[in-house]
Amino acid sequence: MKIFHISAECYPIAKVGGLADVVGALPKYQNGLGHSSSVIMPFYDNKFTQSNSFTTVYKDQIDFNGSQISFKILKTTDDVLDFNTFFVDIPELLFKDYVYSTDDTDRFLAFQIATLNWILTLQALPEIIHCHDHHTGLIPFMLQESFRYKTLNTIPVVTTIHNAQYQGWFSYDKLHLIPEFDLNKTGLLDWDNSINPLATAIKCAWRVTTVSPSYMEELKLEANGLQDLLKHESNKCVGILNGIDTAVWNPETDHYIEENYSINTVEIGKLANKLALCKTFDLDATKPLIAFIGRLVYEKGADVFPSALEKALEDKNCSVLVLGSGNAEAEAALLQLKAKNKGYYNTFIGYDEKLSHNIYAGADFLLMPSRVEPCGLNQLYALRYGTIPVVRSIGGLKDTVVDISKKGGFGISHEQVTVEEIYQAIKRSVDLYHKTTIFKSLTKHIMTIDHSWHVSANAYINLYQSLKK
């Protein structure tokens, strides 16, 4: 089966969040199942594009906002990835040193139009088009309604919602940018008196997926205004849990970490990584090391997170390391904790891929006090590295982490995002750490849990095949 994934992000080319990890892994695993899965994405001005060479496979122009804009479809000269990746190069719109900004409407609309114009010229058409998030949300509509693409409207289109909080809204003064269609169909674009690409995708895609079963059910109750639409379209909606790339996230072979280890050597291996991490950040390695990796935003609980950590650090019975960036107030509050908690707390504002791997390998616990977590990948990486997740029971966290109080439980969960509940979860983590036999047993057990993309990739293939019948 020939599959095209269309996305704004793809690891290791351009990453802002978990979308990149999914699009960077799912095609590889689908190819491993004997299919031909490729990615189409914008051509950005970043480290990947600067350090690789590209060949032009197609060039043309699009009519856009009263002008003729040239574009190219590029491909890497060398096979540097495990799947074919095609880049849409529109220099004046897409070739930027950022992925997202205030000009996203024009940029991603031009990206979608150029992508479909190129697909129109292919002799071997894709059998499935898989769109990811609102940046590609108008593709299902254009394939269905724009006169130019009518010859492609028998290709099944799947849309995956990675995060429904972001929908790509824009006003009707840009309606003319969409390739010509019957204006009587404008209602398919509308939600709450604006053009809403994510809502449009939900209406027009053949199937709508989310990145975990629980998140799909939660969206029918609260989806930043789209809950009623998702209820109405529920017959074509399904939640498929994300996987992780076990070749990239593997403590036995990970070149980023201080010392590699397996299930059999996890105790020695994690200790070596913990000692190195604590030395770098001046932390007490004799205490349980509790870490956070992620965006410092409201959805991740960043508004209450500093206060919860401050309360936990008063007990002086754990070490805490934070890696993240986002809300300026949250960043400032986390930085202020350093002065009062020297030897027990440190923070790195920003993102560092190498450091994130070292934290998964060296930490004893990983905190995820999220308000919204469609799937969550961090807890899956943590499990793979023998690091016990401490999570709010929501979305994909609810689907992947079972509290130790329950039969077969291996993690710690809490119900609400409050200072007290986060503090109590940390306190439970410290208590568990000192139950040495149980703690060591759980550390080994969680490394055996299979959250690879094998299962998820098969689920998507089965979904695609059901659309072709």
From TrEMBL:
Residues 283-408 form the Glycosyl transferase family domain. This is Glycogen synthase. Pathway: Glycan biosynthesis; glycogen biosynthesis. Belongs to the glycosyltransferase 1 family. Bacterial/plant glycogen synthase subfamily. Keywords: Glycogen biosynthesis, Glycosyltransferase, Transferase. CDD domains: GT5_Glycogen_synthase_DULL1-like (cd03791). Its EC number is 2.4.1.21. It is an enzyme of class 2 (transferase). GO terms for biological process: glycogen biosynthetic process. GO terms for molecular function: alpha-1,4-glucan glucosyltransferase (ADP-glucose donor) activity; alpha-1,4-glucan glucosyltransferase (UDP-glucose donor) activity. Pfam families: Glyco_transf_5, Glycos_transf_1. Synthesizes alpha-1,4-glucan chains using ADP-glucose. It comes from Olleya namhaensis. It catalyses: [(1->4)-alpha-D-glucosyl](n) + ADP-alpha-D-glucose = [(1->4)-alpha-D-glucosyl](n+1) + ADP + H(+). ADP-alpha-D-glucose binds at K15. Residues 2-231 form the Starch synthase catalytic domain. SUPFAM superfamilies: UDP-Glycosyltransferase/glycogen phosphorylase.
